[in-house]
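Box 3.1 A note on notation
Throughout this textbook, protein chains are presented in two layers. The first layer is the amino acid sequence; the second is a token string describing backbone geometry. Keep the layers aligned when reading.
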Amino acid sequence: MRPLLLLLLLPLFACSQGSAVGPSTALEDRALISDQLSSYAQLWDRKAAEEFTELFTENGTMEWHMAGAAEQPPAVAGRADILEYARQAHEGRLAGRQSRHHFSGLVFEELSAESARTEHRFMVTHVVPGEPPVVTASGIYRITWRKTDDGWLMAHRKLFVDR
């Protein structure tokens, strides 16, 4: 019965048509990218700016789209600027509060041996000591990944924030 179950489940994990990755490699790459997303949330929420920055390629970018906003925040490009952004956020607007990133609905829109594109939903809560958690943001992450000698890293992260 097990071989039959595996054959039935395999298409669920297969990559898009024409992908250069075979099913077993695709499963491994999906798991590694999923682990990176977990690290993204954990490291940001722990305010570990240096480690968070290492999740990006050297010239990686972070971009935001705020629904309904007349002006959008500027993109942050390159590890040095991402590190500075993270430090400022952790020591500034997030000082004295605990953030929690909640991710769900990870979808692989593209996956090859060298790159991937994912989308997933998020909700962020903040906790100030002595007060209940408050939902501060929700939306969608769209991420372009590059496979490097250091593993799967984010080349471009765009955050679509609900308003």
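Residues 4-19 have pLDDT under 50 and may be disordered. The longest helix spans residues 23-45.
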